[in-house]
Polysaccharide biosynthesis protein (Hymenobacter edaphi), 461 residues
Amino acid sequence: MRSSTQAMRQRGSFAQNFAVTLSGTTIVAAIGFVLTPIMSRIYPPSSYGQFAVFSSVVGNLNLLTTLGYPGAMLMPKLREHFLALVHLSLLLTVAAIVVLGGLLAFAAEPLRNFLHLEGVGGWLYTIPLLLLLFNLNAIMFTWYTRDKAFTKRVGVDIATTLAGRGFTISYGWRFGGPVTGLILGEFFNRITATVALLYGGIWRNLGELWRSFSWQNIKHVAREYKDFPLYILPAGYVQTVSAQLPVFALTTGFGSTVVGLYSFSVSLLEIPISLIGNAIAPVFAQKAIEVHQNEPERLPVITLDLYYKLLYLGLLPFGAVTVFGDWLFKFVFGARWEAAGLFTAFLGYYYVFKLTSLATSGIYTVYGKQRYQLIANCGNLVARGTGLAIGLYFHDVRIAMMLFGLGSMLGSFLTDLHILYLLRLPVLRIALRSVLLTAGVTGLLYLLRLGIESLHLPFLQ
């Protein structure tokens, strides 16, 4: 206990950084949980559906425009190489938004009709601006992580969440919940984050950033970290596309209301993932690189320890959402969102292993095995796409989402096991333990549901 307290007090330690980010992301998650029921009564599923498609388009472009180089910013030991990566990412972003702006001048209308984004209207033309804000946020967040400025980053997260949600609720309340309110809320969130990150300390480095510009250094880091556009970018893009498959598939097969139900359920499942992920991912990524460089024999130990802690942490809440999702959504968010609870039932256990992947996902990069990440993500894409295609063929959204959730869960779990295998850990024993724990918790929760159903409570009818 004393050693843990000392580690918490040690400036810049893993324990202190984790405690700071966890406390901040807990506040952010609490804000989301408190305000989401309000938003669900203002914005209908159709608005959520169109916003999900709009956001998916921006998310796809966000990955492509920087070629994955921001992901390398934690790697360089020399500051001049880090700054060169910042320069490279900014140049790629500016070039991309210029090209995209020209393309939208000709393709916006066909794109709007194809994706059924009639409610978005002229806001489709603002995608380049939103993309610029997304990329600036990503670059500055990584800068804060590299400098271990976790306290400042937490403050920005809290402020932007409050500002964005507050604006979205106010606009929706005033104008009746159109998709425009969700889009403007996202803009307000990103602008607030950009200003806060800049004036939180990065503005002091702008002179250094300007003076250090060097085409020679930019070319050097582009070659040195070429694995990021060659492997990390395709892997990240495939992962993004596979996660967004339901948005586009459900839009085509079942309409924007079903997409809204799906995106709403996923947004709630992502809250604890973001809560824990934003606390752990940046801190553990920095720690894993440091340990691999200085004490490589410790990396398997700390990775497995974190894997088990995340598994234990995720089993009960995600298991409860899986078993009781329809009841929870109907009671908390209203009857029109009950079907969204059924979607969470099909996705709950995938999110258990998405949570454990926070301990493993960065190891491919640390070991220089990025090609395996690409292979794993391609496998997930095929599994998810096949499940959705079967559901579309039978025109049954439940089959589509059940198979999508099953494919996602298996893909994430098998990827975890492969990474643990690379760390030379006992994979079969770890897999058996994980499966037995998952099955045991699921069985107990289903027995509990059967017992509650036997009581015939009025609010469950």
User: Anything to note?
Assistant: Residues 307 and 356 are 5 Å apart (CA to CA). DSSP finds 17 helices and no strands in the chain. The chain has a mean pLDDT of 82.
